[in-house]
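Example 244, ligand zinc ion.
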Amino acid sequence: MRDTNRAPTRRGALQLALGGAAASAFASGAGAQTMTIKPSAHDILVVVDVQYDFLPGGSLAVPEGDAVIPVINRLATRFAHVVLTQDWHPKGHSSFASSHPGKKPFETTQLHYGTQILWPDHCIWGTRGAEIAKELEIPKAQMIVRKGYRPEIDRYSGFIEADRKTPTGLAGYLRERGFKRVFCAGLATDFCVAWTALDARKAGFETYVIEDACRGIDTNGSLARALKDMDEAGVRRIASADVA
Ligand SMILES: [Zn+2]
């Protein structure tokens, strides 16, 4: 049963290797689907931004953000390999509304790389809000990728800065370690999780988002847009129950 289900996955990887047209054929089969996945040595769980500022009571709280913690803790027992990302800003970061006189959180502004949504101050170096939640019990996590530490560039993705060209090194790390499939979970579905998943796909990894292990912010239709972008890019959406 499991082997049967895994076969299309291997074909997907092959199509990816062929690139271009074949990759879009693969993408057309994406979206919510059921399958049973048993993580192997080539699979890694990427846990995105489970930090106090994104949890209830935090400065940029994601609704029900804390609900992902038990789901992710359980998932992490299924994976031999896990990395974490951590939003990590200096004070006065350019993505904060407070850095732009007259602007309020969730409004947008133009920065040198394009439109930037402005956020409440969050995940500032050395504050409790920036800490990865202690309730996340993943001592085996092998690396923490910090993002958004350059004052002038925000970063949603674990792979590439918001200017869409400055790499973080995560793709190289994953390739060097031989990973083929990337499974994303965490906060928030429509920003850091989606961008991380989209960039994982672009970097050539077979990519999954585990939907019940994520929660979204959903500002101005951002959640629907993120789901559509991920579907079109061939990111597969699954449930934590699909991971055996
Ligand atoms: Zn941030």
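Summary: Residues 87, 89, 95, 122-123, 148 surround zinc ion (CB under 6 Å).
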